[in-house]
Design a protein that fits this description.
Protein name: HMA domain-containing protein
Order of helices and strands: EHEEHE
Organism: Jatropha curcas
CATH class of the domain at 2-73: Alpha Beta
Number of helices: 2
Oligomer: single chain
Strand order of the largest sheet: 2-3-1-4
GO molecular function: metal ion binding
InterPro entries: HIPP46, HMA_dom
Low-confidence stretches: 82-86
Structural class: alpha+beta
CATH topology of the domain at 2-73: Alpha-Beta Plaits
CATH architecture of the domain at 2-73: 2-Layer Sandwich
Length: about 120
């Protein structure tokens, strides 16, 4: 389930804002992050399975004062702009939100060394 998390962080400079954004997007499950509010003191994080308490604790330890403002569910948007001639929606080539990675398969190679002849076969 996607959720939207809003965290108020005391950020006074651009350096602390960029550091807070790096921390926010580094947490597992985060899909997007943005600065909100009049003075850009709130971080809005959208993701699936994001631990809001863990994110707030990380920001508190590395930036400063952090307060969890809200956690709310986000509804899924349907992609209706891709339609074929009959009006039915086409499926995307990947499954869900997980990408499929191909692992190269290597065939085993066997090298055989021939022993050197002890005597010359021509003579």
């Amino acid at each position: 389930m996607k959720q939207k998390i809003v965290i108020k962080v005391s950020m006074s400079s651009q350096k602390s804002r960029s550091k807070a954004m790096k921390i926010a997007v580094g947490v597992a499950g985060v899909e997007s992050a943005a600065l909100r509010g009049q003075d850009k003191s709130q971080i809005e994080v959208v993701g699936d399975g994001v631990d809001a308490v863990k994110l707030t604790t990380l920001l508190r330890k590395q930036i400063g004062y952090s307060e969890l403002v809200s956690v709310s569910a986000v509804g899924e948007k349907k992609n209706e702009n891709i339609e074929d001639k009959k009006g039915k929606a086409k499926a995307w080539p990947y499954m869900g939100s997980e990408y499929v990675y191909a692992v190269p398969q290597y065939l085993p190679c066997h090298y055989q060394q021939y022993p050197e002849p002890s005597s010359c076969s021509i003579m």
